[in-house]
Design a protein that fits this description.
Radius of gyration: 17 Å
Shape: elongated
Distance between the termini: 41 Å
Low-confidence stretches: none
Mean pLDDT: 95
Strand order of the largest sheet: 2-1-4-3
Largest sheet: 4 strands, antiparallel
Helix content: 25-40%
Bound molecules: zinc ion
Order of helices and strands: HHEEEE
Number of helices: 2
Structural class: alpha+beta
Length: 75
Amino acid sequence: MYSPKIKEQLIPVIYKRARREHKPMTAIINELIEESLYKTYYCRNCNNQIEAEKGTKEAYCDHCQSEVYLITSSL
Ligand SMILES: [Zn+2]
């Protein structure tokens, strides 16, 4: 499994946040990475909320059960 190193200077900041939020440091790091890579979009057909990689134009909508165009704000 690929285990990238976290920059040393970031560790104290992540440690403090983890203590404050009562979460493991890995949970904090994963949340930050997810926030930076994913965005909440909406299905253009049915307005269903869809989490997709930032910059994505189309994604699978569970409600429509098909590939749909995404929009950035709800209708
Ligand atoms: Zn839909």
